[in-house]
Automatic annotation (TrEMBL):
GO terms for molecular function: glycerate kinase activity. Pfam families: DUF4147, MOFRL. Gene3D superfamilies: Glycerate kinase, MOFRL-like N-terminal domain (3.40.50.10180), MOFRL domain (3.40.1480.10). Residues 348-448 form the MOFRL domain. InterPro entries: GK-like_C_sf (IPR037035), GK_N_sf (IPR038614), MOFRL (IPR007835), MOFRL_assoc_dom (IPR025286), MOFRL_protein (IPR039760). GO terms for cellular component: cytoplasm. This is Hydroxypyruvate reductase.
Amino acid sequence: MIEDRERVATTDARALALECVETGIEAGRPRRVIRETVTLEESETPAESREGGGADETLRIADETYDLSAYDEVVVLGGGNAAAHVAAALQDVLGDRIDGGVVVTDDPVDTERVAVREGDHPVPSRRGVESTRELLAAADDADEGTLVLAAITGGGSAVMPAPAGAVTLEALQETTNALLESGADIREINAVRKHCSALKGGRLARRAAPATVVSLLLSDVVGNDLSVIASGPMAPDASTYGDALAVVDRYGIDVPDAVADRLERGAAGEIDETPGPDDPAFETVSNHVVADGLTVLEAACDAAAERGYETLILSSRVRGEARDAATTHVAVAEEAQATGIPVSAPAVILSGGETTVTVRGDGTGGPNQEFATSAALDLEGGGGITVAAVDTDGIDGATDVAGAVVDETTVDDAERAREMLADNDVYPFLAERGELIRTGPTGTNLNDLRVFVVE
């Protein structure tokens, strides 16, 4: 999975950190996840005893079952980084019981029965708008005889753009860039996105009603808030236009006039709010989180344990500024090394979640690269601690890498490292030292993964 792995894995500790990364990401891939949570069961009743003599098949998703004979058609709708992989996995299970559908993604794979259309991440694009228009049309075609399997994954907020009202794609792009650079967390960012969209914040569920909708979600959101994952296209939304305006004000974001006008008109009650829990559209909707950050952490933990290391999952909900989180993580690793608290070395300490970066400079990087660089500065002159930090979708920030692996040898010029960190330009610093981790698109998106190997 990791390109040029031998070049990066220059020590046993680095090799272990990368093994944990690969094992964790692999555990969250849709084909594995869907295989474990979705099954098609055929009735044991003899065919000649069934009405019409046809097959009586039951679709089981987690603890819920659906009698496929009760539906005229089964379609797959949705979007996100891993949506096409989910569609392909569902096709593996259901075969020709799937009658069609549309998913939008930036990581396409071939499927025979579901149309895969392309969008872009992390900033929405023209082709994403066109693809999402096709997705909305497919949702509009659903009726009470349709079973919709909704493939909703991280990245859906960007790859499924549906600018609402007078909001243009250009205004949406400008707003998205400003939000991503502001330091706002994903809940705040998506509160704004939902109120500029014809699809997000439960509006896709409203378009698909009265169909039966079963959402399969791969969560990249701390706490698995259904209304935040991909901006909650199939989930009730409690956020308001007023909340979106508050985010813009809190971070001093200068949004385009069309966005400001929409949010202000919505807050004044001139535009309908996103549908809430009492909306009838959700009477036939159920949501299932089939994989999340803990899926990744538990698999990575098992990989380390198999190598004889003590393990500790620090948290799956780490958030805040990446460089600050790194300092705290290093302190925990140093304590473990020195005192055996909270875990005795040799150990592997893991965490997940989603850190953020407030962009003040004009460089290239991402939260995991900043986390790694900040950790490397704290490790300078120390020994026996190795850190890998990646985004599980293979794209850290807006770069072509997943993250980085560092240790006490990474920083040979602390002053330059601090300058590049201050300028949000750590990508070239890490590239020069061969510390970047490249995976390409991984086929999943389950938040960040951080691995500390403590010798």
